[in-house]
Amino acid sequence: MSLLNIGGGDDPAYRYKMPPVVGKKEGIGNGKKTVIVNATDVGKALKRPWQYIVKYCAVELGAVSTFDKEQGSGTVNGWHETADLQNKTNKFIKEWVLCPRCKLPETSMEIGKKKDIIFDCKACGYHGQADMMHKLATFILNNPPDSKGGIQDKAQAGKKTKEDRKREKAEKRTKGDDDDDADDNDDDKKDDGDKEPVDIGDGDDGDDGDWSMDTSAAAVKAREDQAQASFDKIEAAMSDTKLSDAKEGKEGKEGKKKKKKKGDDDDDDDPFGDKAEIEAARKAIGAEVQAACEKSAAGEVDGAIKALMVTYEKHGLSHDDLLGFIFESAFDEDAIKQVKTHHKLLTKLLKASPDKKKSGKFLLSPCIENLVGAEGRGALLKKTANLLKVMYDLDLLEEETIIKWFDKGSKRKLGKAMREAAEPFVSWLKEADEDEDEDDDDDE
Fold it and tell me: How far does CA 158 lie from the centroid of its chain?
């Protein structure tokens, strides 16, 4: 079998060679899979852990991957042509092996202090960061390379064992699932304002800000008041459902009757204050957020962050409030493309959130629910699975968050419709999780 030039080309004198990928189709029906027989040999030639190559091919093909360490082979679910696997491997080489400057496969890979992947080129001295937005980056961070071209063992890499995961799951069950209710956002958003104002970034991915706070009684009381005010404001401003004039009139009459019975005054006791004032504030915030998103769409992410920071402090909002207004102001029926356009902006906001888990649940409900449930967006509702997959691939939503949201179910018509549309993707996630657990068992 003739060797191939790493990076392409047909120069017979080129010194960097690799064996061509060998794929073998196995199984039938739902058990179809393609085995990359010589994944170990390809990995050695590229000086990269062979698991990275298999994982990359699976991600690019939208499939699930498994690994057989004893055989040194990787499996990608489904039948795939060897030519397609070779093309994906060539793409992997360009993105994760070749030096961006000199185009030679002389780069080494290491994990930086800021949890980023750094390339060092021995040929030209290049020192730079990998594409951290690719799904493979997460896999590499969870399975860091060692000095011998393999993957660090779990003890060395600090990964959790299966027993650790089982123990954590058992502890979560004892605590109950109250904090996982994705459909009841009142509890989720109650503490959004319970924090000191912070800078959500100026383009530097290193520091997420100091989230320490004063715990004195006075400070706690002040934060509670601020939290309630922020909660009231966003609940009013983010409401997408409006009462019809007839219903509003009916409720107004009933309210007046109750007041007369109780002997109350006729002044408005709306906890959200004057409706006109709230609507004006909502429009002002929406306009500011939309302007910031326009900068993001133009590639000026740092400028968008600074503009949002002004809105954040000016109106006393929280990170989740900003996420809500972004989805309301900058997203429509083309949301799948728009998520990709604004993924850097959304990533920075999520990274700066004091509670990333809660922010993830907030993205699902109400942000995405309001987005796909808006009038005239039935087509987008049917594409819920595609939207969730894009956000999962871009690390905007975690697997655990999506599965828990799905399993929690909903009594509302929209919630049921969303879960029905998302079922294919969630089933894929669950199958992938089961495959990884089986792989852990094999490793042990």
Answer: 23
